[in-house]
Structure prediction request, 127 residues.
Amino acid sequence: MTAADLFDYLALGHVTAFHGANPFTHAPADFAADPFVAYGAWRFFPSAYGPLWEIMAAGLAHLAAGDLWRGILLMKAQALLSLVLTSALTAWLIWHRRRSSRTVQQALFLLLWNPLLLLDIRGNAHH
Prediction:
C-alpha cells in the first residue's frame, strides 16, 4: 500500500543500470518494455532525487538483476541500513554533546519508535 516510491526507485534504477539513460532527462515510461516500469507510480516523470541517490538506485537495480522481489528486498535493506547509520550518528552526536547514556537512550527511543518513520521504511523503503 505504501510502496509507490520503492517501485519508482527500482524503475529509475533500471533507466540507468540497464538502459544507460539519464534518469533526470528520461522517465521510466520511455522504456515501456521494461517490466519494472509497470509498477512505478510516477513512471511518466524523470527523477526528483539527487545524483548520489540515483547512482545507488542504479547499483541496487543492477544487483537485483531483473528480479522484482530481490529488488524490493535490496531497497528495503538499504533503508534499514540508512536507519542504522542514522541511529549510530544520532547516538554519537548526543553522546559528544551531553555525555549521558540516558540522553542517548532517550534520543534513540524517539528516533526508532517514530510511527511515521517505521511505517515509511517498512512499506516504502523510503530514504
Summary: The chain has a mean pLDDT of 90.
